[in-house]
Amino acid sequence: MTDCIFCKIISGEIPSTNVYRDDQVTAFRDINPAAPTHILIVPNKHIDSVNMMIADDEPLIGHLFFVTKELAAKEGISEGGYRLIANTGAGAGQTVFHIHLHLLGGGPMKHPMG
Ligand code: 5GP
Ligand code: ZN
Questions:
Q1: Is the whole model's pTM more than 0.70, yes or no?
Q2: What spacing in Å lies between the alpha carbon of 91 and ligand 2's midpoint?
Q3: How many independent structural domains does the chain possess?
């Protein structure tokens, strides 16, 4: 996707603070952090949102979750607790239409669910 910010981050066209990279997923720090740790974990393959996942994406998304767990441990927030968010659709606050998981932690979570 030529006009996708996250595809451009994955390709290196737009700079980012990367914390993890393999052949399937990339993780980088959110440019506007909402918590002491705020990492975005994205598949290298462009998928618009959770709504656009296909059956073949299941192992990829499973891997993405596993990487997220390992990043939480690396950040030292596994024990203190963290929140994973996948905003889906504009009505839920999705602003970048390349599927991503927010990993938020490192401080007390007071933000309400809705
Ligand atoms: P969404 O609102 O779609 O769930 O989350 C998109 C996130 O991407 C936001 O938290 C926003 O701060 C982050 N973001 C948007 N543009 C960039 C960018 O160019 N670099 C980085 N690192 N984060 C970005
Ligand atoms: Zn993309």
A1: yes
A2: 20
A3: 1
